[in-house]
Every structure is written in structure tokens, then in C-alpha cells.
Amino acid sequence: MKKPLLIAALAALFSLPLQAADSAPLSQGEIRKVDVAAQKITLRHGPIASIGMPPMTMVFEVEKPELLEGLSAGEKVQFQAQQQGNRYIVTELQVVE
């Protein structure tokens, strides 16, 4: 009886950071470079509150290669990023008209 309760409690605990990241506001940025082969994007961005990052230009990995489809340098975007160890990964990306 205790083991299922412990598993449920651990599952709830580990899902909290993911829920917090999903509810964070999207960050603003401008595409500097798209590297489809490496599945990376270079963004000049404002602050990213969800991971405590100040404004800068940096290279991000993308969670899904299809996030890069049709993108080009100079486009303004809104995006969500997560930190996984020493990796920064864009999990959501949309062009701003």
C-alpha cells in the first residue's frame, strides 16, 4: 500500500517544474541563424524569466526539428526555453507578425 502512494507522490513532485515552465510567459527574440542539420537556432533574446537568463544572443537546441521549418534570419519570434543540465532547449516557437 505504501509503495503506490510513494510512486504517486514522486510523480507529482517531478511534474512540478514541467508545469511551471509550461505556464511561464513566452520570451521575445529575433532569429540570427537557423541550422536545420544541427537542429539549432541562434536567437538574440530578451530576458527568459523561466530559466533566469538575462538578454543576450546565444545558440539553442530545439526540442523538435519541425520547429525550425520555414524560419529565416531576421524574423521576430516568441519562444519558450528550458534548461536541461548545461543545455538550453527551445520547446515552443512562433513567428510574430
TrEMBL record:
Cleavable signal peptide: 1-20
Keyword Signal tagged: yes
One Pfam family recorded for the sequence: CusF_Ec
Top-level lineage group: Bacteria
Gene3D superfamilies according to UniProt: Copper binding periplasmic protein CusF
TM spans (from-to): none
Keywords attached to this entry: Signal
Protein name: Cu and Ag efflux protein CusF
Organism: Ectopseudomonas toyotomiensis
